[in-house]
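User: What would this chain look like folded?
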Amino acid sequence: MSTHPSPTDITTYGGANLPDTFTDPGHGPHRLRRTDTDPAANKRAERQVVLLFAVSIIGTVLFLVAYVLVPPGDTAASMRTSNLLLGLGLFLGMFGIGAAAVHWAKTLMNDHERTDERHSLTPSEETRQGAVQALQEGLADANVARRGVLKGAMFSALALAPLSVAVPLIGEVGEDWDITKFKHTIWKKGVRLASDPSGRPIRAAEVTLGSAFHVIPANLEDEEHPLDEKAKAIVLMVRMDPRDLKEAEDRRGWSYEGIVAYSKVCTHVGCPVALYEQQTHHLLCPCHQSTFDLADGAKVVFGPANRPLPQLPITVDDEGYLVAQSDFHEPIGPSFWERLT
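Assistant: Here's the prediction, encoded as structure tokens.
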């Protein structure tokens, strides 16, 4: 049985007669902060805010220096160093401004609580003038005009911070915008399929039923290729019962005894698809859960991707190694590359 009172009993709940309305208790007594009573603490807080703005300025300068003097390059080490410096500079630039604003508001600006009655949506002229007056009082209360160093630090930080976004955007002008390069990878006729990352060529006899291999071109060890070219060439290869394959007429002969190879670059936003489910032959992208059916041309069966994964035509050479018949016959990666070309 419920022990909660009904709405009709609420005024006498617990044997006490409760009033129909409650008096507004108003604001509690205002507690002065140390910066309100101690001029030395107030000055110290101001210096701390200036220091935080200075951190923002240093961070933005670090970002710009790293962008100009430490480019990503073509190696993993250079990319890691560049990304670390850019990320650190961007973090300090944004964090310094945010922390300074919070610390300024909590220690130097007026913290008296005020209550304004709610009026109609269309205020009177008197109300509008009162609002303008309140804004002017708030600006005066911030004491920006009398804090020259703080004002200079704030405006410097705010002026420099947008450069973290503007400079990289401007730097893209004049770059190579030839998007047709995304139509091709370094796969070509006769290139052996090799295990990633060891680079060891794979024999067809090694690929057992139900197994999956992460694959790269075997010629990566013999030739120098930029990292972006290597990233475009990643492939997932699986072997299934040939009777489970549903091959289009124009793709018959692209597989070898149930072994199929597809690009690992998701056609949604380019994440690496690598989670293979043996029983269903489904391949899952971990980023946004796009799911592809490798038994049916890697068609999309779930998720935001809107086209199948490109298939790499494969066969075997005279020594039994799996090799590519050609490059992919369509652009790899997100669908927008295909639409732009």
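The first strand starts at residue 193 and ends at 195. If you want, I can go into more detail on any region.
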